[in-house]
Amino acid sequence: ALQPALHTFFEEGHFAGHIRRQRKLYADRQQVLIEALRKHADGLLTTTAHEAGMHLIADISPACGLSDQEISARAGSAGLAVPALSAYFEGADRKQGLVLGYAGLEDREIDLGIRKLMRVMTDQHR
What we know:
With about 130 residues, the chain is mostly helical. It has four helices and three strands, in the order H-H-E-E-H-E-H. A three-stranded antiparallel sheet has the order 1-2-3. The longest helix has 27 residues, at about 15-40. The mean pLDDT is about 95.
């Protein structure tokens, strides 16, 4: 019963419409994330827009004084899922950065999440 319904979904062009809506939604959320970083990160985290995807890589300023692993651990303790980019590399030359997902979050959650991330990054009493 599922296969005929799925076939009709594709045949009638509903899948293409779904993809267009999701691309627009993700592009809008990506822009919210970029704006939240500009507004709240004080240059400690920077990123650039990408045409597709559901996450961005944030570069960490040397002024931060923390590794991506340290930031990721602090974020995790605060209830934020912010993977360290270096965990995806082999060997000694591991690029530092944070993987910031936005696809499953509402605009307000993105802004609040970046503000919370900045608090844990700048808290010196850990």
